[in-house]
Amino acid sequence: MLHWREGRFAPVPTASVADAFETRAARRGEQQLHLTIRTTHPADDSLVLGGALEAAWRTLTGDAPAGWSTAEPVNLPWSPRQLTELARARAEKSAPTWLVAVGAPDRPAIGTCRVVRTPAGVEEQITVAFGYTAGQAPVRSLSELAQALAARHRLTSMLACLREARVDLTTPPHRELPLVPLSFTLGCEAVRLVGPAVAESAPTRPVRLGPTARPALHYPLGDGTDPASWHRLKQLDDHLRAPR
Known about the structure:
The chain is an alpha+beta fold. The protein is 26% helix and 32% strand.
């Protein structure tokens, strides 16, 4: 391993080869929370998009996204009305819409949203990542967010994962630790389509969210440190997809 010293590269006497591959995030306890969210809305004139993405941002950072755009650099202030108008105009040409949103410099976050017209309605396919310093990741807020998305934003599903990675969301030029699932949530309509009895009899016991007659189901999968959570997620997926 080399470092720059006195105008030239020189060996680092006490460093091992393995040190070069140790992530800075692991040393500092930095983490990233990743969400994959799908929503499905009726295609009507009153529809305003971006609500689910904003709800995730507000729940996990305390504020709305700072800006959005259809390409980088992001140069537009956050506006659900404007992005809805763009998506509606593109849908009239049978074209999907892709956009990126970013957070404020002091609250690292970046997300994307793909809006597409489907037989079921208008679907938002959202991915978003939030950066946190040691001990700050708001894992306990996920059930609160899941309930808000199910009650007010027509949630279809949400997968939450955690990993040790840079708080500023940049990608270093070496191996990083993989994501580890935290939880999976099925929205009310998705539970109905799967079948309430099937959805509630999954290997991972769900938590009911919302009205008893039409609940969303939130499945805790782990604390974000145990890779066995991927196995639990696979078991859950197999159970929900199995033909009945």
